C-alpha cells in the first residue's frame, strides 16, 4: 500500500523530471495534484518553499540552467497568484497595510510573494510591488498607501546596503522590515529596520507583534 508521504515524494520526483525536460503540461498537472487539497498556508509551507529551496540547491550545484529557473519561477508564480483569488476568512477592512517590495537589482521575489500571501491570510492588507523596484517608487507607494509597514527582501546584503540612506529615511516615516538571505541583524540595524525571522510563520507573527506594540 502506498502511503501519502510516498505519493507526495513520487509527485515531487515527477515534477522535477518535468522541470528538467521543460514539460509544462506535466509540471502543471503534477503541481496541481500536490496543491489540490491544501489550503494556502499548507501549500506554501509544505510544497512551494521546499521546492524553492531545492531549486536554489540545484542552481548552486550547477544542475539547473537560467532557463530552468525561469521555467520554475513562472510555473510557481501562476499558482501563487491563483491563490490570491480565493476567498479568505481572515480578510479585515481594518488590518494593517503592508507594502512589500524587492530593492533595485533584486529579481527574486517569489519567497516575498509567499510571505505577502501569508500576511493576507492573517488579516493584513498587502500591497505587493515585487522585484527590482526603485527606491523612489517604494517611498512614493508607501506614502500613497499610508502603509503601516514596509517589507524589503533581498538575497544579497548589498542590494539592501546600497540603498542604506534611502531605506533609513523611509524608516522614519514607516516601520521597515528586512527579509531574505541578504538580511541580517547587522544589516537591519544599519538601515534602522527590523530583521524578520527566516521562518515565514514566525515572520508573520513578529511583524504583527511589532505593529501592535
Structural topology:
Blueprint: H1 4-20, H2 24-35, H3 40-60, H4 66-84, E1 97-101, H5 110-121, E2 125-130, H6 135-144, E3 149-153, H7 157-161, H8 164-173, E4 176-179, H9 185-191, E5 194-195, H10 200-212
Parallel strand pairs: 1-2, 1-3, 3-4, 4-5
Helix pairs in contact: 1-2, 3-4, 3-5, 4-5, 5-10, 6-8
Question: Overview of this structure, please?
Answer:
It is globular and about 50 Å long. The chain has helices spanning 4-20, 24-35, 40-60, 66-84, 110-121, 135-144, 157-161, 164-173, 185-191, 200-212; strands at 97-101, 125-130, 149-153, 176-179, 194-195. The protein starts with a helix and ends with a helix. It has two domains: 4-84, Orthogonal Bundle (Methyltransferase, Methionine Synthase (B12-binding Domains), Chain A, domain 1); 97-212, Cobalamin-binding domain (Rossmann fold, 3-Layer(aba) Sandwich). A five-stranded parallel sheet has the order 2-1-3-4-5, with helices on both faces. It has 213 residues and is an alpha/beta fold. The relative contact order is 0.10. It is built from ten helices and five strands; from the N terminus they run H-H-H-H-E-H-E-H-E-H-H-E-H-E-H. The mean pLDDT is 89.
- CATH superfamily membership of the largest domain, which one? Cobalamin-binding domain
Indicate the low-confidence ranges by residue numbers: none
Number of domains: 2
Structural class: alpha/beta
Percent of sequence in beta strands: 5-15%
Q: Which CATH architecture of the largest domain?
A: 3-Layer(aba) Sandwich
Q: Shape, please?
A: globular
In the CATH hierarchy, the third-tier topology of the largest domain is known as Rossmann fold
Biggest β-sheet: count, sense, barrel?
A: 5 strands, parallel
The overall pLDDT average reads 89
Number of distinct beta strands: 5
The CA-CA distance between the termini, in Å, is 52 Å
What's the arrangement of strands in the largest beta sheet? 2-1-3-4-5
The CATH first-level class of the largest domain comes to Alpha Beta
Amino acid at each position: 500500500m502506498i502511503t501519502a508521504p510516498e505519493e507526495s515524494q513520487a509527485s515531487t520526483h515527477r515534477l522535477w523530471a518535468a522541470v528538467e525536460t521543460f514539460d509544462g503540461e506535466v509540471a502543471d498537472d503534477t503541481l496541481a495534484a500536490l496543491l489540490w487539497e491544501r489550503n494556502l498556508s499548507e501549500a506554501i509551507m509544505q510544497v512551494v518553499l521546499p521546492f524553492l529551496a531545492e531549486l536554489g540547491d540545484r542552481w548552486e550545484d550547477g544542475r539547473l540552467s537560467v532557463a530552468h529557473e525561469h521555467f520554475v519561477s513562472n510555473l510557481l508564480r501562476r499558482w501563487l497568484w491563483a491563490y490570491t483569488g480565493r476567498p479568505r476568512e481572515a480578510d479585515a477592512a481594518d488590518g494593517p497595510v503592508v507594502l512589500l517590495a524587492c530593492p533595485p537589482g533584486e529579481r527574486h521575489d517569489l519567497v516575498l510573494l509567499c510571505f505577502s500571501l501569508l500576511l493576507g491570510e492573517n488579516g493584513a492588507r498587502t500591497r505587493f510591488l515585487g522585484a527590482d523596484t526603485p527606491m523612489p517608487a517604494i517611498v512614493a507607494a508607501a506614502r500613497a498607501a499610508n502603509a503601516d509597514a514596509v517589507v524589503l527582501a533581498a538575497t544579497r546584503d548589498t542590494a539592501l546596503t546600497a540603498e542604506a540612506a534611502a531605506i533609513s529615511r523611509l524608516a522614519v516615516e514607516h516601520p521597515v522590515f528586512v527579509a531574505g538571505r541578504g538580511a541580517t541583524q547587522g544589516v537591519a540595524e544599519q538601515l534602522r529596520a527590523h530583521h524578520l525571522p527566516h521562518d515565514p510563520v514566525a515572520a508573520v507573527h513578529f511583524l504583527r507583534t511589532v505593529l501592535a506594540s
